[in-house]
Amino acid sequence: MGSSGVTVRHNLLGPIGLLVTGWLLWLFIGAWAITPSSVLPLVMDAFEIQETAASWVITAPQIAALLAGLPVGMLLDRFDRGHSVLLSVVLLLAVGLVNTVLAARGEYHALLGTRVLGGFGLVTIWIAQTAMITQAFPAHREATAVGLFVTGYPAGYAFGQFTGPLIASVLDWTATFGVYAVVGFLFGLAFWLIDRGVDTTAAGTDSPTRSDLRRAVTNRGVWGVGLLSMLSYMIYMIFNSWMPTYLASSFEISLARSGFYTALFPAIGILARPGGGYLSERVFGGRSRPVIGISLFGAGIVAALMGVSSTLTLMVAGLVVAGFIVQLQFGLLYTLVQRYVPRKVGGTAVSVVSAVGWLGTFVGPPIVGAVIEGTGTYIAVFGAAVALSVGGLLTVLALSEPAVR
User: What is the mean pLDDT of residues 337-365?
Assistant: First the structure.
């Protein structure tokens, strides 16, 4: 009995090590990706540019991730994912250091180009690590593990927003890129070293053929989960992008105060994302559709109630509840989609959900902005969230869920 217990602990040590180092890597990747927004006035002054041009420094990596997501996922299913992560963190290290040099020289367009290049590393690491962590844990723990893992990116956003100005005050705003890249590289290297002793591939599977990959990208279930990802991330970004302006204009508070209240919406995801995995495993026998359905239904109800709320206290409470409910499903999307296809093409399935989800983060805010301009009211923010929730619920009902592996 004693030796068996030691074996179980030993077997879990590697996967837990992957989860911890992977999460910490994303803490610094997220900070590298978002940090220009925390020092945006300094960026604008340094390059003598306006808000629109400055925003491209923030979004450049995400654009690359959106465009490259699907082909990268298909390639990862044919190559060693661990080595792909290592090469990508080396790329991000180089990009981060070059970002610092180019920013210090005032070379705006070159900075944008290297940030786009870094986006290819970002998407490679995301898809590879999501598939690796899913397969490193036993089936009855994978949803919670991935739910914990995907909190690293939003935590990185918060970390970058907080530490970016501190680094800028001690060194310079241009140093933020290099600092995050160097520390992130160390955790990426640790992840790769741990992975050498962990089985993160399906036993007995060979490299997928082109036919296998084609079936994965044409699978109805894969694209159904992809649609859920797009709708859910649109809801997520609608709240993140438009709520500060809505609160400031409707309740006559400062942008700083409204920004603080809005920050509660993504921050609660640190509890919600692994919570969705725990709920799936402990209450619904590993099934994901019930939790995703609860998430979308709850998001629609809360958005509708927020639309008729008349006090700031109720609005802030609604943001916390909405942030929890919306993000409850996010980790589950990445584990559910892999169950529609063989393990050997899990990276391709994850890439569909990731790429379509990133698309949702881009198109959500401008679509709602156009609706606000057309209607002349910010109530459109809540109406759009309700409509997207209904669309998501219909998608959930149309999907059949594969058996838990």
Answer: 86
